[in-house]
Write a structure and sequence with these properties.
UDP-N-acetylmuramoyl-L-alanine:D-glutamate ligase; 9-stranded mixed beta sheet; 4-stranded mixed beta sheet; 34% helix
Length: 296
């Protein structure tokens, strides 16, 4: 095990359409994609696509959607340590004009305890706040062993405020700032007070506000992507997280400014593709995108 990701599995059905019907109406989508979903789950697949295959503790049901997910994981050679639930979770994602509407149905009633794994060779842990008991257990265990801990703070879930005390890299969404009634700068102060070595707030097309290893606050602008090229922004943040973990694992001696620059290119690639799987870049994809941007 080089890295461990912990999260909640969704099957994402992404439908590209001009409008959402209401009442007794029908419409025909222009295109669709079916793929794995979930914050840390998508991040794990992104990390694998970029060259480092992580282990994954996630929810799996014994139904046809669960079996489909396991087939996807086999394709990427990701070892899945299943935590059983009765039914698979499903998301309908509707991208539109750079935004996305999501309808979700989730089963998070676990039928068994989380698996306890050997962390002997693990170098990074990434969490999204789901499976709060497992997240806290592994965050504490990794902190005690000096293993890098990373958190995608997409929203106010479970025991996330307690979890921050054991996190090295905390990158949260503006939504969490709103839920905690904190401005972005106040959120950075909060993360520093919690002991997070690096903290940041992702702000979509406005990039990221963050502080580095020395506590210096700065901004990371988003890479320019023309509006006409943006197809599906869903999953862009998840790919961002998976990419910076992959970059860290490949070159831990580099600072996180370099890891985040790599990750923003991965995120820029994702938004130009429909669905999570199509939006996972390779190393060659990221190099090509960065080269093209430098020529603008």
């Amino acid at each position: 095990m080089q890295a461990l990701f912990i999260g909640h599995t969704y099957i994402d059905v992404t439908l590209l359409c001009d409008r959402v019907p209401s009442g007794d109406e029908k419409t025909v989508a222009q295109d669709y994609a079916v793929s794995f979903g979930g914050n840390a789950v998508t991040a794990a697949f992104a990390c694998a696509k970029l060259g480092t295959i992580p282990d994954l503790i996630t929810t799996v049901a014994n139904d046809w959607l669960g079996r489909m997910f396991l087939d996807m994981a086999v394709t990427y050679q990701i070892p899945v340590h299943a935590r059983r639930v009765q039914r698979s979770s499903l998301s309908f994602v509707l991208p539109n004009d750079g935004k996305r509407a999501i309808i979700r149905a989730r089963d998070d009633h676990y039928l068994e305890p989380f698996p306890v794994l050997d962390l002997a060779d693990c170098r990074a842990l990434h969490l999204d706040g789901h499976q709060s008991d497992a997240a806290l257990y592994y965050a504490k265990a990794c902190r005690a062993k000096g293993i890098l801990t990373s958190l995608d703070g997409g929203g106010l879930r479970g025991n996330i405020e307690e979890l921050f005390s054991f996190i090295d890299i905390a990158i949260v969404a503006e939504r969490l700032c709103e839920q905690m009634a904190l401005s972005p700068k106040d959120m950075l102060g909060y993360l520093k007070a919690k002991g997070c070595k690096i903290g940041g707030i992702t702000m979509g097309e406005r990039g990221m506000l963050w502080y580095d290893e020395k506590g210096t606050i700065g901004t990371l602008p988003a890479l320019p992507v023309s509006k006409s090229a943006i197809i599906d922004t869903s999953g862009a943040g998840d790919v961002f997280h998976g990419a910076y973990v992959a970059s860290y694992l490949a070159a831990p001696e580099r600072g996180f400014a370099a890891h985040f620059e790599f990750a923003r290119a991965a995120s820029a690639y994702k938004i130009q593709h429909l669905g999570n799987e199509a939006g996972l870049p390779t190393l060659a994809d990221i190099k090509a995108l960065e080269k093209n941007v430098s020529l603008v």
